[in-house]
């Protein structure tokens, strides 16, 4: 592998790094890591290890920690160095900076200060997951990590449920079971989805099915590794209110509210919560 020491223009260079396999890095990314005057890394240990794997010496260059919890002064320092003519490479721990990784405030403030911003595109867990999920990728909404607070999660899922796009979430292994349950309740248990784990790594795994099936499959399972949940578009946006109410009336005439809600929610791929509220209105209980 021929790594070149090149003359980089001053500014901030956002560099995508591997999400698993170290050889997924691009030649251009290696050239930038070998040539940048300063390297800003979300995790300096990971950056050092990646450079060692590819035979890149840090030498006497600055390696600065820059992550979500960095003080604003760190960002200001990086921008000041770039404004003074330095080339600053910014790398996340894995993947593309600014895709659920540190980067946006740095790019925003650099642009506002008139400092050039460059990109060396490459690995991204979001794009990798879309590739293997087998779900439509012509219209995609990247949601990132759902908030941990219950009320905020409900508001988020209600907000995006009707969007006619494939949804991409990042999630921690500790919360993936909860997220699958809540997505199934909020978006409809028949909505197609995929859980992508440890992408590009030795134990890569993709589990496909409906949200209801995935919620059941992961319920009693201990999960490890990085998780991306991809949810295909549902029919929620196309289901008109009158269609739901007509289906509910017919179902309520045959059975209980509980059975009617389950039947209509599954048939129209609607969140049970919404169907239940409509059923209560029809029954005069709300």
From TrEMBL:
One of its GO terms (molecular function) is rRNA (cytosine-2'-O-)-methyltransferase activity. InterPro entries: 4pyrrol_Mease, 4pyrrol_Methylase_sf, 4pyrrole_Mease_sub1, 4pyrrole_Mease_sub2, rRNA_ssu_MeTfrase_I, RsmI_HTH. It is found in: Cytoplasm. Keywords: Cytoplasm, Methyltransferase, rRNA processing, S-adenosyl-L-methionine, Transferase. Residues 239-282 form the RsmI HTH domain. Residues 12-215 form the Tetrapyrrole methylase domain. It is an enzyme of class 2 (transferase). GO terms for cellular component: cytoplasm. Its EC number is 2.1.1.198. It catalyses: cytidine(1402) in 16S rRNA + S-adenosyl-L-methionine = 2'-O-methylcytidine(1402) in 16S rRNA + S-adenosyl-L-homocysteine + H(+). SUPFAM superfamilies: Tetrapyrrole methylase (SSF53790). The keyword S-adenosyl-L-methionine applies. Catalyzes the 2'-O-methylation of the ribose of cytidine 1402 (C1402) in 16S rRNA. HAMAP family: 16SrRNA_methyltr_I. Belongs to the methyltransferase superfamily. RsmI family. PANTHER family: RIBOSOMAL RNA SMALL SUBUNIT METHYLTRANSFERASE I. This is Ribosomal RNA small subunit methyltransferase I. The gene is rsmI.
């Amino acid at each position: 592998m021929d790594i070149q020491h090149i003359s980089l223009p001053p500014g901030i260079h956002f560099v995508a790094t591997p999400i698993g396999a170290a050889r997924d890095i691009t030649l251009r990314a290696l050239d930038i890591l070998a040539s940048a005057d300063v390297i800003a890394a979300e995790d300096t240990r990971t950056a050092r290890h990646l450079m060692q794997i590819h035979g890149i010496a840090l030498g006497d260059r600055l390696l600065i920690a820059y992550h979500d919890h960095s003080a604003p002064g760190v960002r200001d320092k990086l921008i000041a160095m770039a404004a003074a003519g330095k080339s600053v490479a910014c790398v996340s721990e894995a993947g593309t900076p600014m895709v659920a990784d540190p980067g946006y405030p740095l790019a925003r403030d650099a642009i506002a200060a008139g400092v050039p911003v460059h990109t060396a595109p490459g690995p991204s867990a979001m794009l990798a997951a879309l590739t293997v999920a087998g779900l439509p990728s012509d219209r995609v909404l990247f949601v990132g990590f759902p908030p941990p607070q219950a009320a905020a999660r409900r508001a988020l899922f209600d907000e995006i449920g009707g969007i006619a796009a494939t949804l991409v979430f990042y999630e921690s292994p500790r919360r993936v079971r909860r997220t699958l349950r809540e997505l199934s309740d909020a978006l409809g248990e028949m909505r197609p989805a995929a859980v992508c784990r440890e992408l590009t790594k030795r134990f890569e795994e993709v589990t496909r099915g409906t949200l209801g099936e995935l919620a059941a499959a992961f319920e009693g399972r201990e999960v490890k590794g990085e998780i991306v949940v991809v949810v295909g578009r549902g029919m929620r946006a196309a289901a008109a209110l009158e269609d739901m109410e007509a289906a509910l009336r017919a179902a309520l005439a045959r059975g209980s509210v509980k059975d009617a809600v389950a039947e209509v929610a599954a048939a129209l791929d609607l969140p049970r919560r919404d169907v239940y509220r409509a059923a209560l209105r029809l029954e005069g209980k709300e």
